[in-house]
Write a structure and sequence with these properties.
The chain is α+β, with helices and mostly antiparallel strands. It has six helices and eight strands, in the order ββαααβββαβαββα. The chain has helices at about 25-30, 35-40, 50-65, 110-125, 140-145, 175-180; strands at about 10, 15-20, 70-75, 80-90, 95-100, 130-135, 150-160, 165-175. It has an eight-stranded mixed beta sheet with strand order 1-2-3-4-5-6-8-7, with helices on both faces. Helix 1 packs across helix 3 (about 50-65). About 35% of the residues are buried.
């Protein structure tokens, strides 16, 4: 398996994307625990300790060479979201993107710009296929992916068990050649 590339600091407009650290757990918990966010994610977050376990998993996966996660920070408003790859499979040149954003920052194009930055990084590193798995219904997330050129591949029935209930998810994908054709 090829090694995962270094985890750089990236820019998305006025926002800086820097590698996630354990110190980010309290801030991340603030918006992951909000209902509008928690209903759309698979994480079972009930405390800052739960988020620390998630951060530890990402740090471990980063060290193992198969995941990246960035904290999105604005100059004036501090941490506002995270974006990254839950899976980065260098053997198959495939990466699964995931993201979340404070509800107070929805509708500003921040997540589209942040995803664009990490996708550009991934495709430059040789990823051929970017995937996203979105719990249904999550129209906001689906619109972000659509703006980036992702295509729906269909519904995965009862794909994830989330807080005790089976949830459907929609699979999206974007190929490097499609990304390049769009001139992203």
């Amino acid at each position: 398996m090829k090694p995962l590339p270094p985890h750089p600091v990236l820019r998305a407009g006025d926002y800086v994307l820097r590698p996630l650290t354990m110190a980010d757990a309290p801030d991340w918990y603030e918006w992951l625990s909000e209902y509008d966010v928690s209903d759309a994610i698979s994480y079972d977050v009930r405390s800052v300790s739960d988020v620390r376990r998630i951060v530890a998993w990402y740090l471990e996966r980063r060290s193992a060479g198969d995941a990246h996660r960035w904290m999105i920070r604005g100059a004036d408003d501090g941490p506002v979201g995270t974006v990254g790859f839950n899976v980065w499979d260098t053997a198959s040149d495939r990466a699964e993107i995931g993201y979340d954003l404070r509800p107070s920052h929805w509708g500003r194009g921040i997540m589209t710009a942040a995803c664009r930055a990490v996708l550009a990084f991934a495709f430059e590193q040789g990823v051929n296929r970017a995937e996203a798995i979105v719990l249904t219904p999550n129209e906001r997330s689906s619109r972000v992916l659509s703006r980036l050129g992702f295509r729906s591949e269909g519904i995965l029935r009862e794909y994830r068990r989330v807080r005790g209930a089976y949830r459907d998810a929609e699979m999206f994908s974007l190929l490097r050649r499609e990304w390049q054709a769009e001139g992203a």
